[in-house]
Amino acid sequence: MYVCMCHAVTEDQVKKAIDGGANTPRQIAKGCKAGTDCGSCVRRIQALLGEHGARPCPTARLAAKLGLADPEAPAAPAQPPAPVVPLRAA
Hints:
This protein has 90 residues and is mainly alpha-helical. 38% of the residues lie in helices and 6% in strands.
């Protein structure tokens, strides 16, 4: 059965990637590009990861949308909080 129609990736290919050590959708995408186009297959990929004991994680696009850090990216320096300016009563 196809998991990713955009790149013609089958469920067996995803399972082989998991057996080969992939444990995130991003790692699977690096090997076969599944989940890198329209994204409709990502939930199935996450389910397959979960069935095989891996902890599924969101895709890079979802992580960016939610403001989550990319685990492979260097850590950004902490920004100091913006100063609080008191409001004046009129």
